[in-house]
Write a structure and sequence with these properties.
three-stranded antiparallel β-sheet, 106 residues, alpha+beta, 28% helix
């Protein structure tokens, strides 16, 4: 029997982010990044995005709510980078949801 590690959970979240919502036939699995990027993050959109992540990746439902969080880094003059924080490792959301993914940040 193998134990699921933080790296395994990070890989699951990364896979979810790389999979466009409803791109798997008969399933709503995946991240709807374009709709997230078009909404103000001050509203409930970030909570809804993380709720969908927890629904699609059930292992996250068994973990503490602060194990997976959303963070925003504001860059001058008017840019921001959105991250999913999984156990202290930041996974950047792609600026182009259809483009290649960036590597995990330390």
């Amino acid at each position: 029997m193998s134990i699921i590690t933080a790296a395994d959970v990070q890989d699951m979240v990364l896979h979810w982010l790389e999979t466009p919502a409803e791109s798997i036939l008969g399933s709503g699995y995946g991240a709807d990044i374009p709709s997230l990027l078009l909404q103000p993050l001050s509203g409930p959109v970030a909570d809804a995005f993380l709720a969908k992540l927890r629904e699609d990746v059930p292992i996250l439902q068994t973990l503490a709510s602060d194990y997976v969080e959303m963070r925003v880094e504001r860059l001058p003059p008017d840019r921001q980078v959105i991250y999913i924080d999984v156990a202290g490792s930041l996974i950047p959301l792609p600026e182009d949801p259809q483009g290649p993914r960036a590597a995990l940040l330390p």
